[in-house]
Amino acid sequence: MPRLPTPLTLPAGDARGDGQQNHGQDRDRADHAASAGERDPGRRRRSPLRRGETATAWAFITPAVLIILGLSVIPVAWSVLLSFQASDLVTPSRWVGLDNYRALSQDPNFSQAVRNTLLYTVLYVPLSIGIGLALALVLNRRIRLVGLYRTLIFVPFVVSATAQGVLFSFILDPEFGAANSVLNTLGISPQGFLTDPGQALLALVAISLWSGTGFCVVVYLAALQDVQPSLIEAARLDGAGRWQLLRHVTLPAMTPVSVFLLVWQTINALQVFDLVYVTTKGGPLGSTTVIVYFIWEQAFKNFTAGYGAAAAYVLAVALGLVTVGLRLVRGREQRRSARPVRLEGAGK
Questions:
Q1: What integer is the mean pLDDT of 78-100?
Q2: CA–CA gap between residue 191 and residue 198 (Å, rounded)
Q3: What is the rounded CA–CA span in Å between residue 183 and residue 190?
């Protein structure tokens, strides 16, 4: 067995030139590695291999990048420019600056669409969340056929809005619909429903509740099953009743879920279109014309694409403000819940 060389150590007094010696050693190692790479042909083959892996990775990524650019980034940038132009999508457009936005602020049809959208949102969002929470609390118990009940409540959410519109157009028909037949049996006079300017928007809200509440029920059921049983048991041992459990334990534990549903349902309500298009087409007398239907009508029916694009970006800004506001509220609630709670009598 060969004898190992004795390691060399520097005395404590020679530590002043360590930095320069280390720098020189690093440079010597780099030169040695370069010379070793020249002697080792395998090292030179790694660089083309890495380039080949990079090319393969880009080959897989490129279709997704092209789809994202073609369907989102480029249309968004093009519509921004379109909102500052007068265009009918056929003839050459001309630059008008902020004239489209000024016209929107003075358009009574756009103001009516904004009012209808806000009224629809104010009615639909709280009702869908409240009814969803109530049904989730009921279906979270151990009752017979609970799985069937959950399925029946969730099935309308899976049905497309177009199918819902066609279905309820027959049910709510003022002459031959099943709804007026039932009302006639109960001795109530026939109603106009979707053909009555005072009832059409409320009818759309009811149809949306029939379909959209199931999503809230499923989300709240998952949140209820995620509440820690130890918290509920501790509250019961302290003498809390059913209402106290719901108010002080269950609802605070589901605050993030409630904020998520509030944001989700609000965005969906502000973007409602297909149900309106299938059932009322914005009528009667514009009572169900919402913002998205107004945008479609201006861009593809009246062929004022620049005007419709400006309305679309007004809606986009509104959605952004709603999202940012709700996120700020959620952050404030999280900071408040993270603060230490001082129990009564703790300082005594």
A1: 87
A2: 11
A3: 7
CA distances 48 to 45, 51, 58, 201, Å, are 6, 5, 15, 65
Cα separation of 157 and 238, whole Å?
Answer: 40
End-to-end Cα separation, the chain, in angstroms: 79
In angstroms, the CA 274 to CA 292 distance is: 9
Answer whether 285's CB lies under 8 Å from 265's CB: no
pLDDT in tens, 260-276: 898 899 989 999 999 99
Give the residue carrying structure tokens 């104010």: 122
C-alpha to C-alpha distance for 86 and 94, rounded to whole angstroms: 5
Confidence at residue 347, expressed as pLDDT on a 0 to 100 scale:
45
Q: Which of 259, 255, 270, 256 is nearest to 326 (CA)?
A: 259
Which range, 41-45, 124-128, 189-193, 297-301, is most confident? 124-128
Distance between CA atoms of residues 172 and 184, nearest Å: 13
Dump the DSSP string for 65-125.
Answer: HHHHIIIIIHHHHHHHHHTTEE--SSSPPEE-TTHHHHHHHH-HHHHHHHHHHHHHHHHHH
Are the C-beta atoms of 330 and 256 separated by less than 8 Å? yes
Show the tokens assigned to 196. 């009555």
* Six-digit token string for 182: 């039932």
Tens of pLDDT, residues 168-215: 999 999 888 899 999 998 988 989 999 999 999 999 999 999 989 999
